[in-house]
Structures are given as C-alpha cells and as structure tokens.
Amino acid sequence: xxDVFDNTYKFFILDIENSNAYAxxxxxxxxxxxxxxxMESEAELALVLAHEIAHTSRFHGMIEMEQRKHHIGAxxxxxxxxNFFEEFLPDxxxxxxxxxxxxxxxxxFKIFETLIEGRLDEYEEEADFxxxxxxxxxxxxxxxxxxxxxRLVSSGSLSNNEHYTIE
Length: 167
Hints:
Elements: E1 10-14, E2 21-24, E3 28-32, H1 33-38, H2 42-57, H3 60-67, H4 69-88, H5 95-137, H6 143-155
Parallel strand pairs: 1-3
Antiparallel strand pairs: 2-3
Helix pairs in contact: 2-5, 2-6, 4-5
C-alpha cells in the first residue's frame, strides 16, 4: 500500500519494554515489545508499521546520516583527543582539563541537536501523513492511530521519542 513498490522490508521485535518503533535505511523496521503490549488491534500495528515504512520510503535515515556527517566527525575528533590524553598524558592532564573536554563535547552535541530538531519534526510529520495514507490504502482507519497515541500518552509509557504528544 506504500508508494515504493520495489523495497523489501524486514521486521524485527526488540525485547525492550519502552514503547517505540524504529526505521533503518534499507527497509529494516524494529518495533519494541513495549509497543506491541500497548496495541489493542491489528489496525494499530498496521498504522505504526506504515509510519515506519514511510520513513524508509522517504529515505529519512539516509538524509539524516548525510546531514550529521559533520557531527559524526566532531565525535570522532573528541574521542581521539580523549584517547590521546589518556594514553600519552594520563597523569599530567588535570581533571579540570578533562572536565572542559567533556563540557565542550556536550555543548557541541546540544548545539547540533538544537539545529536538527526542526528537521526531525518534519520527518515525523511526513511519516505520520504518509503512514495514514498507506494504512488507509490497506483498509485500516486512521482513527485507530489516535486511540493508540492517546493510550500511550495516558499510560505515561517511557519512550525516547519526544515527537509524539497529544495536543
């Protein structure tokens, strides 16, 4: 029911109690046991999987990897700097300098996350929209997704995905 007919998808269940699902480049979709426990119907499962399929159909993961290449390079640089200090100057580097390196790394990460936040929201909105279309094409109703979202929010279910809120 998606608009990408030549992709092959593989689905996996993660033994994690948090409620979530993930899409990886190449059509690999993960859903957690916690998310499966929250579901009350086949339609809810179909809608969550359709949302994740939408991420892969629009190459969100690949686009994000390309966008993050500078951040990945910065992480590598910080790791190399830490390794140098630990290997060659373990006793001569004061704790204050080590602390400053850690602070620089954390600030770099915060700045990067602030810059990409809007982009991630756009990915989620697009995946929500396309996921609904895919699910409707497959014969499910989008209202089912709202019921699942309301249940997830009211349960206080732990998730590392802050993009989903009921407003």
